[in-house]
Amino acid sequence: RNNDGKKSTYIRVDFEEDEDETRSIVDPSGSTVVFKWKEGDRLAIYSGNGASGMTNYDLISVDANNVGTFQANGFLLTTGAEYYAFTPYDGTQTKKAAVKVDYDGLLQKANGTFDHLGAKDFQYSGVTTAKSDNPADLTHFDLKHLGAVCRFRLTVPEAANFKQFRITGTGLVTGGQIDLTTGNFTPEAGGSITMKFGDGTGNINVGANKEITLYVMLPQQNLSTCTDLAVELYGIETAYYRSKMYIAYLNGKDIKG
Asked: Tens of pLDDT along 195-214?
């Protein structure tokens, strides 16, 4: 409920016990991908009453267990009322029963980096009953991941300056929408997902017979059901340099959680 800017309200956000994960920075060392909250992370909190409307909460601190505390000014949760959480925050997604997600358009800065993944790490909570605003007993939201991290390691035969990467396939799920009230996800098979490099115009240089490592987020799905599944690398073309393009066909795996 609105509070005319007179008071701040705080919540704590964690991940379900069977998900040994937190959010926005990924560390691929070992077999488990681990995310952590980072400065600038923001949540959308939806009321259980009414079809639309939400408010944003900003991260203010993270404890030793990677549980984030978030703050909203001028908005109070009603004790005993029901709420839902979603991240990353998008002010256009006001209907909790139809929150849209799109995994296209990531930007990887350099070879092997992965800090870009948080921009498409869509997460949601089930229904949560608000507690008091007592710092010792804050409302606690448990989040679930909608997507899966995919790593691609490709060796290129000739040196090139690459500008983008694309995944294609008939039946490839590229987005959809989730009903926060039920947890049901309705997939959309867009057929391709593109990720650009560097500043968006091309900035990953790879030597001959060297490896490029790419990280993308995809909706959880069984990729073995996609036909003609492939990954494509596109190089930069100038007046003096012809663009290189490489295509690798894949046997898809099940990447459902």
From this structure: 999 887 778 999 999 999 99
What is the DSSP code (8-state) at residue 32?
A: S
Q: Which long-range contacts (CB under 8 A, 24 or more apart) does 15-24 make?
A: 15/142, 15/143, 15/144, 16/142, 16/143, 16/144, 19/144, 19/145, 21/145, 22/66, 22/68, 23/68, 23/87, 23/118, 23/121, 23/123, 23/143, 24/115, 24/117, 24/118, 24/121
Q: Is the pLDDT of residue 53 over 90?
A: no
Q: Which structure tokens are listed for 71?
A: 């703050």
The answer on pLDDT for 35 being more than 80 is no
Closest CA to 67 of 117, 23, 33: 23
Averaging pLDDT over each range in 13-22, 44-53, 93-102, 150-159, which range is the top one? 93-102
Residue 2 pLDDT class (50, 70, 90 cuts): very low
Distance of CA 156 to the CA centre of its chain: 28
Spatial CA neighbour of 250 closest among 151, 113, 108: 151
How many CB atoms are located within 10 Å of the residue 64 CB?
A: 5
According to DSSP, residue 162 is labeled E
Q: Which amino acid is at 62?
A: V
